[in-house]
Amino acid sequence: MKRTSLILLIFAFLGVLIVGCGSNGKKEGSGQNGGASAAVSPTAAAASPTYKVQKIVVGTTSVFPNVSFIDANGKLTGFDVELVKELDKRLPQYEFEIQPLEFSSLLLSLETKKIDFIAQIMNKNPEREAKFLFTKEPYSYFKTKVAVEVGNDQIHSLDDLRGKKLYIGSSTSNNAYFIEEYNKKQDKKVEVVYGNGGANDLVNLLRTKRVDATLQNDFSYHFEKDADGKEALKLVGDPLFENGVYYVLRKDSQELSDKLDEAIKAVKADGTLSKLSIQWLGQDYTKSLKE
Amino acid sequence: MKLDPGFIYDAFLQLLSALPMTLLLTGVPAAGGLLIGTGVAFIRHYRVRGLHLIVAGYVAFIRGTPALMHLFLVYFGSPVIIDFFARKLGLDFNSASIPILYYVFLAFSLTAGAYLSEFIRAGLLAVDKGQVEAAYAVGMTALQAFRRIVLPQALAVSLPNMTNVVIGLLHGSTLAFTVTVLEVFGKANIVANQNWKYFEAFIAAAILYWGITILLETASARLEKRINRYHRGGVA
């Protein structure tokens, strides 16, 4: 009897904690509005030479080859990292500090204000937009296709994958959503195998036929190498969907978001963005299919 | 930071679909570990010549390295060994036909076995040698002395620690997602992928894990009571 009441007490405590978190959030939110309006002053002062530099922490990961990764010299670099540095140069009122984190903790860190925006080729959807703020100006467009092992000539499209196994990483932006929607319309479904990539063995999974295919961006499949360092994947079929990529911010950071959009437009206009894209991703991915 | 309690509930319901896998990832290694652990404990307790040094090495290695590493060593290493012997013996067998889940079972059983062996050994050591001699003196055989005198007391000593190991296995099962075995924590990552409400999904997972842990603890407490009955006096 005593034991049960103790357990109940602990659960009640947890409940209070959760509710407390929720209401705290609201209070913090309103407080943050005040904070945001206060933050206007340094930018308003930006016109005059005596503005105050505001420090902004940028979250990214360190495991995405050529996008945000640790190079041979142990330095964090890549397309997203170098682009953020370029934008920093163009936004004198801000000082960006880049903080590499694990994917799922990026979003929690953003919510809990450990970082101020996320640069990790993020895609948006309406549910995410309800929770976070996205920049308006996409800084790249990527097309997603089915990727198979180089030697595979059985699979030519997504439809060929019905009844077969498709690997989806748990930290990829829109692939899981896309395939679940696709499966809803099929009688014979694609069998989805989820993983978090922790063992770094995607190529091995494909080669040993534990999975038959995966979904990859038009640039990222180049980075999946076999043991000899050769490219191990090839893309097949038509593009399944095209995604614009954006920075992700908290809802209270409209000011910062607008400044980022301005800076992205500027690097687009003078060709710096295309140059970075070609340098890191091998091609100019800064224009959409429509353009 | 704003919480969406409704999504904690939604996520919780979705996580239930991955619960059987988590329980399997706890139960099978617990049973496998108990077999290995018992074998190892006896070999070390009775100092079986030649073998006891090997198993001491096994225990030292496993306890000296993280569980995630055991998983990777088995996952990446055993296919190489299996394929090598399959080729040598001319068998038409490929390690890729073994489900990944089996590697996870093996790895976690090896991890649990080392820890369990130490707790079982502690139980065996806790029983006074004089009692065994007394058992012999009243005419019991070695087997009878073990079954009726040593085992009940050793089990009572080991049980709380064994429960700890099983709870550790439950929580350690989250490592299986690194090799694409979808359990509760992996599922929590996936249900949050769409709307990025990771914190809510993790809270739902925490409630689920805690719930199972409480059940395990309760079961263990009951068993402990039963197993400790001999303390009240009388002959078993």
UniProtKB/TrEMBL annotation, chain A:
* Record bears the keyword S-adenosyl-L-methionine: no
Which keywords has UniProt assigned to this entry?
Signal
Q: Which Gene3D superfamilies match?
A: Periplasmic binding protein-like II
InterPro entries given for it? Solute-binding_3/MltF_N (IPR001638)
| Domain annotation Solute-binding protein family 3/N-terminal: ranges | 55-284
Q: Could you tell me the superkingdom of the organism this chain comes from?
A: Bacteria
How is this protein named in the record? L-cystine transport system substrate-binding protein
UniProtKB/TrEMBL annotation, chain B:
InterPro entries reported for this sequence: AA_ABC_transptr_permease_3TM, ArtM/GltK/GlnP/TcyL/YhdX-like, MetI-like, MetI-like_sf
Instruction: Give TM regions.
Output: 20-43, 55-76, 96-116, 165-186, 198-216
Q: What's the superkingdom here? A: Bacteria
KW Ligase (keyword) present: no
Its keywords, alphabetically, are: Cell membrane, Membrane, Transmembrane, Transmembrane helix, Transport
Q: How is this protein situated with respect to the membrane?
A: Multi-pass membrane protein
Ranges where the ABC transmembrane type-1 domain occurs: 19-220
Output the Gene3D superfamilies linked to this UniProt entry.
MetI-like (1.10.3720.10)
The compartments listed are:
Cell membrane
Give the family, as the similarity comment puts it: Belongs to the binding-protein-dependent transport system permease family.
Protein name according to UniProt: L-cystine transport system permease protein
- Name its species: Paenibacillus forsythiae
